[in-house]
Amino acid sequence: MHTLQVNSIIENSIAQGMSYQEYLSLMAKLMADGASSSPVPSEEMTLFTKLNYKRMLRLNKTINIDGKYREIISTYDKKVTWLAITESWCGDAAQILPVVNKVVEVSNHITFRLVLRDENLDLMDLCLTNGTRSIPKILVVDEDYNIIDSFGPRPEAALNLVEDFREQYGKLTPDFKQYLQLWYNKDRGKSIVKDLLKLFV
């Protein structure tokens, strides 16, 4: 794809994107309506959306950025947009996005926008993970709408757990997915922050 086409996709995605608070409001509405952001109605996706909304509200209150990291983030002086690709039903996104938002709040130079994957497949297909549309994906976009870095779909420590389990058992089971959520809870966002700091270069 031509560079101008790519930049146009990114520019339009940012323009149409939501703020973090708008995304939370969408999650609340979906939960109230007994729905999810999936284009295909699903009781499972609806349940995940409800769980994820409650999880995000809890993390908004409990996640803190350590002082040693705050200085690195606050002195970052590049004007960039962090563009998150997500869906309401994604458990990893519910754990990661509140941490991303806390990091962005420390900086005066980062704009945070969020878009839904299934409404933005042209954007999603610019940043596949091993050929898959894995989310969440955080794209670091400069003022000319170039992707200069990215994060996701999981912090490295969680990704290693997933890859080891998949290699041993072939696929991720419901029990493992529950274990992964417990891992996130125990980690308290530390691995996510550590990996996000790699974007501050």
TrEMBL record:
Pfam families: Thioredoxin_9 (PF14595). InterPro entries: Thioredoxin-like_sf (IPR036249). It comes from the Bacteria. SUPFAM superfamilies: Thioredoxin-like. This is Thioredoxin. The lineage of its organism: Bacteria, Pseudomonadati, Bacteroidota, Flavobacteriia, Flavobacteriales.
